[in-house]
Design goal:
Strand content: 35-45%
Number of domains: 3
CATH topology of the largest domain: Structural Genomics Hypothetical 15.5 Kd Protein In mrcA-pckA Intergenic Region, Chain A
CATH superfamily of the largest domain: RNA-binding S4 domain
CATH class of the largest domain: Alpha Beta
Radius of gyration: 18 Å
Largest sheet: 5 strands, antiparallel
Structural class: mainly beta
Number of strands: 19
Distance between the termini: 34 Å
Order of helices and strands: EEEHHEEEEEEEEEEEEEEEE
Strand order of the largest sheet: 5-4-7-8-9
CATH architecture of the largest domain: Roll
Low-confidence stretches: none
Shape: globular
Length: 234
């Protein structure tokens, strides 16, 4: 019980679930995302999208190879799915992108087949491989060897069908960003200025349609050079 489940009341606050429906809920297996910013697939299918009513039904559609995450067939009901991942359900012709809403809850934003072919990953750090290659490490646990120069905080556009990088998105003035933290979480805006701090976290000034504000640079998730490359319907 301890390994496969956790108390609903103790589940991460980012999970949009009913807290008192039952005592326990499935625990995601360790994977690409932290438990705070990822959900077990069975919870997504049963509790959030309500495509199935029970865990048994979820296992049935998974065993039928009807569900994909980032274009890869998934059969494990406890597989973790997190921020910016693409969930596709072939039989129902449905596609969803995992986002955060203004209350810091993980949501499944419905999209179409064309938009689902693109996903964006943020670079959390860089390392040097054994042969001197530059290795970039994305927020979702993926690692890529690259020749082009990338900075921590930049993003990369990935073709879902090939899982190859097709474009670099720099965190710079004029970039379109999606905020993943702070009181402006889930806001879409343009970077006006990047402010470097020696003793504190770097900050950015962000402009939206209605206002201009300052927030931490680490909250910026670049999703386009001037406008968003992906649909962000909540």
């Amino acid at each position: 019980m301890v390994k496969n489940h956790l108390l609903r009341l103790a589940a991460p606050r980012t999970w949009r679930i009913e807290r008192k429906k039952t005592t326990f809920i499935s625990r995601p297996k360790p994977g690409a995302h932290s438990m705070a910013y990822g959900l077990p697939l069975v919870v997504v299918l049963r509790d959030i999208l309500k495509i199935v009513a029970t865990t048994k039904e979820a296992k049935q559609i998974l065993n039928n190879k009807e569900v994909k995450i980032n274009n890869k067939v998934v059969r494990d009901p406890r597989r973790i799915i997190g921020l910016m991942d693409i969930l596709s359900i072939a039989k129902l012709k449905l596609h969803f992108r995992v986002l955060l809403d203004e209350k810091n809850k993980l949501i499944l934003s419905e999209t179409d087949e064309k938009d689902a072919k693109l996903r964006i990953a943020k670079i959390n750090k860089k390392t040097i491989g054994k042969k001197g290659q530059t290795v970039i490490h994305f927020h979702n646990g993926e690692n890529f060897i690259v020749k082009e120069k990338y900075k921590t905080g930049d993003s990369a556009v990935l073709e879902t069908e090939t899982n190859k990088i097709s474009q670099k998105l720099e965190l710079k003035t004029g970039a379109m960003i999606f905020l993943t933290g702070g009181k402006h979480i889930s806001v879409l805006g343009t970077v006006v200025e990047i402010i470097s701090k020696k003793l504190y976290d770097d900050q950015i000034i962000v402009k939206t349609k209605g206002e201009q504000f300052t927030t931490l640079k680490k909250y910026a998730f670049v999703i386009g050079e001037k406008e968003s490359l992906i649909r962000l319907k909540k």
